[in-house]
Amino acid sequence: MKPIIVVYTHTDVSDLWPMFFGEFKKYMPDTKIYVAVNKSDNRLSEYTQLHYDDAKPYTERLKDILNQLKDEIIIFLHEDMILIGNPMIDNLNKYIDYVADNRVKSIKLISINGNFTSLDIDTTVVSNEDTKFSIQPTIIKTKTFLDLLSKVEPLNIWEFEDAVPVEDGHYMVRLGNEKRRGIYHNDSLVFPYIATAINKGKWNYTEYEKELNELFNVYNINPFERGIA
To answer: What is the pLDDT of residue 155?
Structure first.
């Protein structure tokens, strides 16, 4: 089963689009991509656009998006989670099968440090005391995502991550030899990406200077126009 990507974005951050979509074409060509955006934009014409009302809180925008999709299994992410290497497609397909077969509710493609407990059928699918859905690249059914959203009040993105209930069935990916990045998480080997490229509206130079400099050169981006953090 091929991955289906749903990327959440906004026209206010369209300066990231060439980098995000360019790297996806490089590392995951021919992947089905839905773009969730606040209004139609010709720069996204090659993708299926899903529109949301940006007057609504973040959680309600997600409902707008997901209700336009069938009961599908998706990889959900934002436009500042930029691929920087080849994903392990065989692993991704295996994880998608776990979600399809209801062995798990979701699999986040990054790990947070802690003491890990493995899924009985796969030692690379793990959980710990911090495991719950969060806004990172995650394999999940649209109906499961909607169910999570139904359990919280209308919230902004940061409030939503805090309010997401801790439930059994949500997992992370950990191969075991990931590099520590920042305080809380490890690099993803299965889905190599920048987590995340933007920090409080500026380029996340503190954690990803090398990776971002390479991308700035490729896409002719002046980082000082947006600023660096």
So the answer is: 97
Query: How much is the pTM?
Result: 0.96
Q: Distance between CA atoms of 23 and 143, rounded to whole angstroms?
A: 29
Q: Specify the number of domains making up the chain.
A: 1
CA dist., res. 226 & res. 137, Å (int): 24
Q: Is residue 212 part of a domain?
A: no
Distance of CA 102 to the CA centre of its chain: 20
Helix axes 58-66, 142-150, angle to 10 degrees: 150
The parent domain of residue 59 ranges over: 4-196
Query: C-alpha angle with apex 198: 193 to 203, nearest 5 degrees?
Result: 105
The rounded distance, in Å, linking the Cα atoms of 194 and 192 is 7
Residue 114 is predicted with a pLDDT of 75
Render pLDDT for 147-162 as a digit per residue (tens, 0 to 9). Answer: 999 999 999 999 999 9
Mind listing the pLDDT tens digit for each residue in 167-185?
899 999 999 889 888 777 8
**Which of 25-34, 94-103, 183-192, 195-204 bottoms out in mean pLDDT, i.e. has the lowest?**
183-192
CATH number where 99 lies: 3.90.550.10
135-160 residues labelled b (16+ CB within 10 A) or e (exposed): bbbbbbbbebbbebbeeeeebeeeeb
